[in-house]
Specification:
By secondary structure, the protein is α+β, with helices and mostly antiparallel strands. The protein has 2 domains: 16-60; 66-243, Glutaredoxin. It is 52% helix and 12% strand. It contains 8 helices and 6 strands, in the order H-E-E-E-H-E-H-H-H-H-H-E-E-H. The chain has helices spanning 18-60, 104-120, 139-150, 155-164, 171-180, 185-193, 198-211, 232-243; strands at 66-69, 83-85, 93-99, 124-130, 218-221, 224-227. It has a 6-stranded mixed beta sheet. Helix 3 (139-150) runs antiparallel to helix 4 and helix 3 (139-150) packs parallel to helix 5 (171-180).
Length: 245
């Protein structure tokens, strides 16, 4: 008689000891939770970095109004060599603005500055300086053109027109505007083509960077920095507080 030995059934892992299975399940669950949490943390961190970068870019182009104080001694004082609206000798409040003729927020800010001059008169003085942003191709040419207009005592009229007609900024328009304002056309054209005042534009830009300017418009009110195209009421509050001191 041949005795046949019946093979033992193959036992899978899941047929094992119930207690062992429970421990394995618990450990696996904890491990999976940790993996998911870490992945979520990485994703959240990436999102946070993206949001921070976006916020910094927003501030750089002047979209978000902020206030602060310029580092002590870093803001170049206004002098007779600046472009000044008002009288520095009479003014109790001096507004030093760093601007860019191609910046849409500067264009929006310009009427607010004009309104301030109209309301406060000799109590305030407005100093205009250049801070052409690198991604605005017409910012430097427009600044150079305005300097050539200043050479013929038409800086403010020329600058006002540039902001009003910001969508026309180009070499042909700069020459055309000079003619409309009654400037000596050939003298203006020679000045512009030679980039005669590049050093002045560069000097303004450097002084703005030293003062902490990173975007436009940037307006210092008695040394207090206001970044962005803020509402008139916001600037008025600061000016009135300065006048009350």
């Amino acid at each position: 008689m041949n005795d046949q030995i019946e093979p033992k059934p193959t036992q899978s892992f899941f047929d094992g000891n119930p207690k062992m299975l429970f421990v394995f399940g618990l450990v696996s669950g904890i491990a999976l939770t940790l993996i998911l949490n870490n992945s979520s943390g990485v994703f959240s961190s990436a999102q946070g970095a993206d949001k921070l970068a976006a916020k910094q870019d927003t501030v750089a182009v002047g979209k978000v109004p902020t206030t602060g104080t310029a580092p002590s001694g870093k803001l170049a004082a206004a002098t007779k060599d600046d472009h000044i609206r008002g009288d520095l000798n009479k003014a109790e409040v001096v507004l030093i603005e760093y601007s860019d003729f191609e910046c849409p927020f500067c264009s929006r800010h310009h009427p607010t500055m004009l309104q301030i001059m109209e309301e406060y008169g000799d109590k305030v003085a407005w100093v205009f300086r250049y801070f052409p942003l690198s991604f605005h191709p017409e910012a430097v040419p427009a600044a150079l053109a305005s300097e050539c207009a200043a050479e013929q005592d038409k800086f403010w009229e020329y600058g006002d027109a540039l902001f009003v007609n910001q969508d026309l900024l180009a070499a042909d328009y700069y020459s055309q505007l000079a003619g409309e304002l009654g400037l000596n056309q050939s003298k203006f054209d020679d000045c512009f083509e030679a980039k005669k005042y590049q050093d002045q534009v560069d000097a303004d830009t450097a002084s703005g960077a030293t003062a902490g300017v990173s975007g436009t418009p940037a307006t210092f009110i008695n040394g207090q920095l206001v970044s962005g195209a803020v509402p008139y009421a916001s600037l008025k509050t600061i000016i009135d507080a300065e006048l009350a001191k």
